[in-house]
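hey team, just a heads up i'm posting the complex here instead of the shared drive bc the drive is being weird again. everything in one block, sequence lines first with there labels, then the predicted structure for the whole assembly after. its two chains so it's a bit long, scroll down
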Amino acid sequence: MSLVDESFELKELQVLEGHADRVWSVAWKPATGFDGVPAVLASCSGDKTVRVWEQSPSSGSFQCKAVLEETHTRTVRSCAWSPSGKLLATASFDATTAVWEHVGDDYECVSTLEGHENEVKSISWNASGSLLATCGRDKSVWIWEVLPGNEFECVSVLQGHTQDVKMVQWHPNMDILFSCSYDNTIKVWAEDGDDDWHCVQTLAEANNGHTSTVWALSFNATGDKMATCSDDLTLKIWGSDLLTIQSGNGSAPWKHICTLSGYHDRTIFSVHWSREGIIASGAADDAIRLFAEDGDGLVDEPKYHLLLKKDKAHDMDVNSVQWSSAGNRLLASASDDGTIKIWELISLAGDQKPPL
Amino acid sequence: MTLGLINANPVVHAKKKRVARPLDDPHADDAFGLHYVRDIRDPEHPYSLEQLSVLSEESITVDEKLGRILITFTPTIQHCSMATVIGLCLREKLKDCFPAHFKVDIKVAPGSHADEEAVNKQLNDKERVAAALENPNLRQLVTECLYSSEL
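-- predicted structure starts here --
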């Protein structure tokens, strides 16, 4: 049975309050939320702090375990856990990226990455945790190598976008970097074998791309499809040939598969693809939408359908939606209303969950 | 400050008389929003945005039911680099006057600015707005425009 044949409910489990300003972004800690390890979530805000929330094994409710403050002097725009979950990186409008380590009961800032001229907007760790990418208003994308002893060395500064870069995201299993920008494009960056990074593809309006700021992008579990969302009120699905990507030259072209329009009526800020294939989007219309691939579509032309609409998910703009990778169908959302909400996707057809 | 003025000689209009509108006026809602923003001072001149005809009664529409506000303003000159500052002032002022969940769209009047599309895009990118308001110089300029009494 395909996901689109099922009926779902998005049940609000908890509202996390504590931030004193809009919450920009949330990130689930990898390898938590299953096998008896409590789920952990980080959030960051216009209040200049990062909060770490942990699910209580007994009550199931999330509690704030740590407030990371007095390091960033301006808005903390985004946060990202390293693949091992040992480090948390935070990007701030104060032009720095901080790296935090969980030591005892505390989070300690173990490194501060400086170099961007002004606001840093996004960070992403590659699959192995050996590289970190950052981007910002100075139109550049930086790649940092993670060295022993919490040292970070800038290995490349990538110029190519003509406006500020909103988000960077590594491919889920290849060292290929993706960035999206206020210049309406998505760029694909790959290494040429001589440690030099180059833009190998630009997805622009001429390639059926977006006609306004591209705010976010996300990959499906296998990494052969990518979803992007934009101020043009659309989501777009892109595909590439996985075998060609894996052949290692990193230059398999990405092609437009379809455009999902008419589902949000204000800027779409966030898109996130769950391991089992459900795409969540959050927007300035205060709503969350879920989409899934229609099993009836042809392999070459997959079709995507709306699975669920959640209007008034928050009182204000939804800035970030993130599925837990634990396979528990938990979704976290962050909003201008200063709260984070934890949602559970419940299948109304019964209890069967597809294997992950 | 030795910086030259962007528009050294703006046309200044008399302040409009403020008459209480009858409740059955069909346009009451249109004019309703203007009184919140009419006294914002221009970033360059000791005049209000209304006196410089940057704003008029047609500039602002408030849809209370949907919680949406649209402001269209007219910069005094085609190359006004202050347009984004005026946009920040309007956004900050409206934030104080309306419930937090109201959606605000700010635009320059069609044909009123040489970089109309770029200005409109920047005025409505909330990340850039948030970053601009954290900039101490811009924040001070906005505060002066909103709360200055030297009109």
